[in-house]
Design a protein that fits this description.
With 123 residues, the protein is mainly beta. It has no helices and 11 strands. The strands form 2 sheets. Strands 2, 4, 5, 6, 9, 10 and 11 form a 7-stranded mixed β-sheet that branches. It has a 4-stranded antiparallel β-sheet with strand order 1-3-8-7, with no helix packed on it.
């Protein structure tokens, strides 16, 4: 059974960093696309970053380009989202999701989801 478990969220001050992890089971990371999505209070869930496999060409939302880095470790079957220079507008629940492939980094293309981890950026 495919399962995704996120961790690494928390409260951080503006300008700080966090690294989110997404531990996958029931799938082999090199054969799947992984997406990171977030949902801020009162807003729709949006794509943050997506990548196929553990080292595929990544896609980033404009709002996080240059600050966030998606990566994967095939040996650990775990994907990561390194978040640097965090801003208050990065606050939200972050989800990882998996799909056999994707064209666009939007939630409609991803069928397996983790439970989410809260990220709060505030002074």
């Amino acid at each position: 059974q495919l399962q995704l478990v996120e961790s690494g969220g928390g409260l951080v001050q503006p300008g700080g960093s966090l690294r989110l992890s997404c531990a996958a089971s029931g799938l082999a990371l090199p054969n799947y696309a992984i997406g990171w999505f977030r949902q801020a209070p009162g807003k729709e869930r949006e794509g943050v970053s997506c990548m196929f496999g553990a080292g595929g060409r990544p896609w980033y939302a404009d709002s996080v380009k240059g600050r966030f880095i998606i990566s994967g470790d095939s040996a650990k079957n775990t994907a990561y989202l390194q978040m640097n220079s965090l801003k208050p507008e990065d606050t939200g629940v972050y989800y990882c999701a998996a799909a056999r492939g994707y064209y666009y980094c939007n939630e409609g293309e991803f069928g397996a989801w983790g439970q989410g981890t809260q990220v709060s950026v505030s002074s």
